[in-house]
Design brief:
The complex is a heterodimer of chains A (378) and B (326).
Chain A: H1 16-26, H2 35-45, E1 51-54, E2 60-64, E3 72-78, E4 83-89, E5 95-100, H3 105-108, E6 112-115, E7 120-124, H4 134-138, E8 148-149, H5 155-159, E9 167-170, E10 175-177, E11 181-184, H6 187-199, E12 207-213, H7 221-230, E13 234-243, E14 263-264, H8 275-288, E15 293-294, H9 304-308, E16 315-324, E17 331-334, H10 335-357
Parallel strand pairs in A: 3-12, 3-13, 13-16, 14-15
Antiparallel strand pairs in A: 1-2, 2-12, 4-5, 4-9, 6-7, 6-9, 7-8, 10-11, 11-17, 14-16
Helix pairs in contact in A: 1-6, 6-10, 8-10
Chain B: H1 2-9, H2 19-29, E1 35-38, E2 44-48, E3 54-60, E4 65-71, E5 77-82, H3 87-90, E6 94-97, E7 102-107, E8 122-125, H4 131-137, E9 143-146, E10 151-153, E11 156-159, H5 162-177, E12 184-190, H6 198-207, E13 211-219, E14 238-242, H7 250-262, E15 268-271, H8 279-282, E16 291-299, E17 306-309, H9 310-325
Parallel strand pairs in B: 3-12, 3-13, 13-16, 14-15
Antiparallel strand pairs in B: 1-2, 2-12, 4-5, 4-9, 6-7, 6-9, 7-8, 10-11, 11-17, 14-16, 16-17
Helix pairs in contact in B: 1-5, 5-9, 7-9
The chains are: A alpha+beta (378), B alpha+beta (326).
Chain lengths: 378, 326
């Protein structure tokens, strides 16, 4: 859909989901260090599923038994966010770091961060503009020149609160503003986590595996392990994706536009989604009048890329909430996009049993009789 | 051989949209194999039963192409590339969609130098009058492939998509010959090789063969000032030593060389510094699978006018036939 989708605020989901989302963005889960996020989610889902477990790499896998279709569906959302990893402490007490996941140095300067379990506050400082020479003013900052100031007077004092190997996250609280907008860190991919947790309440004909994955931002690592364990027949990946819809950009370079609804991927660097599953999802959106858009740029990658090629192969598709300024402390989404993405994902799940049993979608397997039991209240 | 190649290169099949190629191959071989099926990703897997070793022979069905990402208000199509498309040689080419629609690739003429003609500065003209008109003809997410019908000339084939329909053709011909062997032969026509050797991974995981060969194309060094290794057109199939994705298992390479020598089949050795093949993902699947490759020397790979020698294809067929009988 290249046309401006019609905005339609959804009233069918409680506004409290936005509060949950805000809480989740306030927790820190830099890749490899997702425990705070996982603990929060576990608390919310533990009574709503048949079983759950945390695997060796840290994925939270939640299982709901199906009502007899004999198919397995994986829903995946990654828990981790981009952030920093502490690599050393200078004699003067300044903290050295590496970035974890895709953060560019221009985003780092002047940002508040918090380090480790105790959330030690710090700031990424830089030379005052008054003291910069002309070449420093002209050229972009290099990551290697940046450190975190935690206000310690020397190395010894810094070592009392920070250790090499700690992770650090941006220290920014969510803000609702403007026209249905929410600004927060880590919308990529706490939006997916909230949606996935919400969807786990349903009972479906197929076995449902909700996989909250780890280490997506550093190479889609958690999803690979989870999908080999689950061996699903189909997987839907819930994501936050790039949005670049500002004035002056050619239409075809706007990856997505805020307010146009959930974004579907036709291809990115990691995956070419199953065309038939994609069509089923877009038809679902059309038939329910849910606005949707195609992500226009062949950029980035998601867990879908690893899940598709796991085991004997999996039919996959990605549904994303557009997020401006993604991978910064101030990513921005439209709440209506979020609710519409949730609505589309829920409707897709409700119809998926029918999709499985249609001709040609059962792969090498024999088609099995359709059974009802999926949620149909959308 | 030319007829089979011709049938297969005429089938539309960019990465992720290989089902027409799969249909064409199924039609060619279904009566000669014991089982034939497709998996979740679309790999076509045909089995000739046996009680010996499980041998997987893989050729990829997909070709490079373009994917439509935006239809602008005047009806021009913007695209992303599928696989290793060279932007500059795309200019002025005709492309064809699955429904037969033809388009022309051109560039924003405001760019300063033709070198700046990146895919995002290019578009496809399908002669549509408006966005609405174009939307009747194509959908975002549709793919197009380069046009270039097969021509037979001086013992060579000039065509689009020889990478890797020539490999598919060799494999299909082999299946049709039903080579007498005790081994169980898996003829695997894979998907999405051009975007990262994706299909072969799941096929190999499902089959768990004892050994595997990728049948693909390789670059030649016989054109003016070429820098690609030492392979020439017409000097026989190339037995893979290594490419960028795999080091061929020495025992497999040796067995292929012995087969060629003992049967008087000309061959060359392939050391490819750029590019990979399905063997790259097969050999590290499911505990490790000894893998190698037989490659058809090919000029101008990833252009709309690739060139192979028919004798090389025929000799690749003979080499594989003796290989699976051992």
């Amino acid at each position: 859909m290249t046309k401006q989708g019609k905005l339609k605020a959804s009233r069918e989901y409680p506004e409290s989901l936005i509060d949950t989302l805000k809480k989740l963005t306030m927790l820190d889960g830099v890749s490899g260090d997702e425990k705070p996020v996982r603990d929060f989610i576990m608390e919310r889902i533990k009574d709503r599923a048949d079983s759950w477990h945390v695997d060796n790499i840290g994925n939270l896998i939640v299982f709901s038994k199906g009502t007899g279709l004999g198919k397995k569906v994986m829903l995946a959302a990654h828990m981790d966010e981009v952030g920093l990893l502490i690599t050393g402490i200078n004699d003067n007490g300044l903290i050295k770091f590496k970035t974890v996941g895709g953060i560019e140095p221009r985003v780092l300067v002047g940002k508040r961060v918090r380090i480790g379990k105790d959330r030690v506050p710090g700031v990424i400082g830089y030379k005052p503009v008054h003291l910069q020479d002309s070449s420093e003013r002209k050229n972009a900052v290099k990551k290697s020149g940046l450190t975190i100031d935690i206000g310690a007077k020397d190395r010894e004092q810094a070592e009392e609160s920070v250790a090499v190997g700690d992770t650090a996250a941006f220290d920014y609280d969510p803000v609702e503003f403007g026209d249905h907008k929410l600004m927060a860190k880590a919308l990529d991919n706490r939006v997916g986590c909230v949606m996935l947790a919400e969807l786990l309440g349903g009972r479906y004909p197929f076995d449902l595996y909700g996989c909250f994955t780890v280490q997506e931002e550093i190479g889609l690592k958690g999803a690979k392990a989870a999908s080999y364990a689950v061996e699903p027949d189909a997987a839907i990946i819930l994501e936050g994706t790039t949005c670049y819809d500002l004035t002056g950009t050619d239409e075809h370079m706007m990856s997505t536009r805020l307010g146009d609804g959930p974004a579907l991927t036709v291809m990115d660097r990691s995956v070419i989604p199953d065309r038939d599953l994609y069509r089923f999802i877009t038809h679902t959106a059309k038939s329910l009048g849910i606005p949707w858009q195609v992500k226009r740029t062949i950029s980035g990658g998601t867990d879908a890329g690893r899940i598709q090629v796991s085991g004997r192969g999996v039919k996959v598709c990605t549904i994303s909430v557009p997020c401006r300024y993604i991978h910064t402390p101030v990513s921005v989404m439209d709440k209506r996009d979020f609710f519409n993405t949730l609505k589309l994902a829920e409707a897709t799940l409700a119809g998926l049993a029918g999709w499985f049993t249609r001709d040609g979608n059962s792969g090498a397997h024999e088609p099995e009789p359709n059974e009802s039991g999926g949620k149909s209240d959308v | 051989m030319f007829d089979t190649i011709s049938t297969l290169v005429n089938a539309f099949g960019p990465s992720g949209r290989e089902n027409r190629v799969a249909e064409a191959i199924t039609h060619l071989i279904k009566d000669k194999v014991d089982e034939i099926s497709s998996d979740a990703m679309g790999n076509l897997i045909a089995v000739k039963k046996g009680f010996g070793k499980k041998i997987m022979l893989a050729a990829h069905m997909d070709e490079i192409g373009l994917i439509i990402t935006t239809i602008d208000e005047k009806g021009f199509l913007r695209f992303g590339t599928v696989g290793g498309v060279l932007p500059l040689i795309s200019l002025g080419q005709r492309v064809v969609f699955e429904n037969g629609l033809t388009g022309v690739v051109w560039y924003e003429e405001s760019i300063e130098s033709i070198k700046d003609a990146k895919p995002e500065k290019m578009y496809i003209d399908i002669g549509a009058k408006s966005r609405e008109h174009a939307e009747e003809l194509v959908e975002i997410g549709d793919m197009a492939v380069f046009e270039g019908r097969p021509v037979q000339q001086n013992g060579l084939v000039i065509s689009r998509a020889l990478d890797d329909r020539v490999g598919c053709a060799v494999l299909a011909e082999l299946a049709r010959r039903c080579p007498e062997t005790d081994h169980e032969i898996y003829y695997v026509f894979t998907v999405q090789e051009e975007v990262g050797l994706r299909g072969a991974r799941t096929a190999a995981y499902a089959i768990r063969p004892d050994l595997a060969l990728a049948i693909d194309v390789t670059r030649t060094a016989d054109t003016p000032k070429s820098r690609h290794g030492a392979v020439s057109l017409g000097k026989g199939p190339a037995i893979k030593v290594k490419d960028n994705s795999v080091i061929a298992h020495p025992a497999i390479r040796e067995r292929l060389e012995n087969c060629a020598r003992e049967n008087g089949i000309p061959y060359q050795l392939e050391v490819l510094d750029k590019g990979g093949t399905d063997a790259g993902s097969i050999h590290i699947t499911a505990g490790g699978i000894p893998s190698g490759g037989v490659s058809i020397p090919t000029r101008f790979i990833h252009s709309a006018s690739e060139i192979v020698n028919l004798e090389d294809a025929g000799n690749a067929l003979k080499l594989l036939e003796t290989f699976v009988k051992l």
